[in-house]
Amino acid sequence: MESRTLEIIDPEELRGYAYFKSLEEGDLGEIAAVLKVQDYADDQVLFEQGTPAEGMYVVRSGAVAIEIGGKTVATLEQGSVFGEMGLLNDRPRNATVRAQGDSQMFYLDRPDFDGLLWTNRLCAYKIVYKIALTLVDRLDKANKAS
Question: How far apart are CA 125 and CA 146, in angstroms?
């Protein structure tokens, strides 16, 4: 993985992602300032199931496979968010995530998110609210599948 923390991200680019759509212009600027850009090669593992969770990812380009117990359970493409629970708790990762083709991610780590909690509570609240909606949606899908 190559991390390009110095890449300047245009806040307007973030408006195109559902996760950030509800944020105000100033909020987008704050998020853009703390996001890191990470590049992954085809089949490269972003993180392994059971490892410490330390942040969330947004697929900027490419795709990732979500694997549980060695079995692919989902494929996520541009705009998808995963690992978001890593912003909220210290639990281990629930899945292994592997790049499908060359892929690029935005990454928000917990220390930077915690900083937002102190400097821009409304922005952090909107992200937590979006995380809650995402988890509710995933729970609904899991209940329908069982």
Answer: 32
SS3 45: strand
25-56 tens-digit pLDDT: 899 999 999 999 999 999 999 999 999 999 99
Strand partners, 57: 82, 107
What residue segments make up the domains of the chain, in order of their start? 2-137
d(CA 37, CA 78): 14
Q: Looking at the domain 2-137, which fold is it? A: Jelly Rolls (2.60.120)
Tokens of residue 70, six digits: 């060695």
Q: Exposed, middle or buried, 39 (CB in 10 Å: 0-12/13-18/19+)?
A: middle
Answer for the pair 64, 99: CB distance below 8 angstroms, yes or no.
yes
Residue 105's DSSP bridge partners are: 38, 59
Question: pLDDT of 58-106, one tens digit each?
Answer: 999 999 999 999 999 999 999 999 999 989 888 999 999 999 999 999 9
pTM recorded for the entire structure:
0.90
